[in-house]
Backbone:
C-alpha cells in the first residue's frame, strides 16, 4: 500500500486562536516601554518570529528593541498570565479534524514560528499533542516565514519530500513559506488573524469541517499529476 503523506500545521491561528492573544501580549509589553502600537503597525509580523517583529517595530515606529534582553521574557510572562487566567482558545473542530486525519493514516507535524515551550504548552493545554510526530519551531531554523526554512526542515525531519506534504496555514507569510517550500498549501480563513492574503494557497477553507482526508487526497493527486 502506498504510504500516506504528511500534513504540516501552522499552530497559531490554525490549531489555537492565539493571534488576538499575541497582539494583547505585545501591546502590553511595548506599552511598558512607552510605545503604543496599533494593529496596522503590527499585522505584518503575524506568522513570523521575534526577530521579524522587532525589525517591523523599528521600521514602523522608529524604536529599536533588538538589544532589549528583557522584552521577550517579559512578553512571555504576560502571555503565561493570560493563558493561566483564560486558557488557550482552541479553534473549533480541531480535535475532530485531527482524529479524522489520524484514522486516515496521515502523518502529522507542527511547523510553527512560536518558541518550542509554547508549542508544547499549547498542544498539551488543549490535549492534542499526541497526534503529532514532531513539534518544530521556527527558532530551529535560520530564516522566519515567509522563507521556506521551517517547512523544509520539518519535512526533512519526517523523512518526506516537500511535494508529499500538505500545509494548513492562516497567514500571508505562512502561505508564502509553504509554497516556497514546494508544498501544497491550504489556507484557513480565520477572521481573528486579521486581514491576510491567502490567494497563493491552492484552496481556502473557513471551517475545520472542510479539511478532510478526501480533500487532501484530491490535492495531492493533483500535485502528483502536475
Residues:
Amino acid at each position: 500500500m502506498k504510504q500516506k503523506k504528511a500534513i504540516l500545521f501552522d499552530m497559531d491561528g490554525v490549531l489555537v486562536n492565539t493571534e488576538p492573544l499575541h497582539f494583547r501580549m505585545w501591546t502590553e509589553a511595548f506599552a511598558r516601554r512607552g510605545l503604543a502600537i496599533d494593529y496596522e503597525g503590527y499585522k505584518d509580523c503575524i506568522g513570523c518570529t521575534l526577530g521579524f517583529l522587532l525589525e517591523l517595530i523599528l521600521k514602523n515606529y522608529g524604536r529599536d528593541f533588538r538589544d532589549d534582553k528583557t522584552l521577550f521574557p517579559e512578553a512571555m510572562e504576560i502571555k503565561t498570565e493570560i493563558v493561566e487566567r483564560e486558557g488557550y482558545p482552541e479553534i473549533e473542530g480541531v480535535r475532530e479534524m485531527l482524529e479524522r486525519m489520524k484514522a486516515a493514516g496521515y502523518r502529522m507535524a507542527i511547523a510553527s514560528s512560536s518558541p518550542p515551550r509554547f508549542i508544547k504548552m499549547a498542544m498539551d493545554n488543549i490535549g492534542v499533542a499526541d497526534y503529532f510526530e514532531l513539534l518544530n519551531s521556527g527558532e530551529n531554523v535560520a530564516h522566519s516565514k515567509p522563507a521556506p526554512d521551517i517547512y523544509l526542515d520539518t519535512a526533512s525531519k519526517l523523512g518526506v519530500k516537500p511535494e508529499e506534504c500538505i500545509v494548513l496555514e492562516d497567514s500571508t507569510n505562512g502561505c508564502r513559506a509553504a509554497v516556497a517550500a514546494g508544498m501544497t498549501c491550504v489556507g484557513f480563513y480565520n477572521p481573528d488573524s486579521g486581514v491576510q492574503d491567502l490567494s497563493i494557497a491552492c484552496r481556502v477553507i473557513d471551517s475545520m469541517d472542510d479539511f478532510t482526508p478526501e480533500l487532501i487526497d484530491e490535492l495531492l493527486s493533483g500535485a502528483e499529476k502536475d
Notes: Residues 19-86 form one domain.
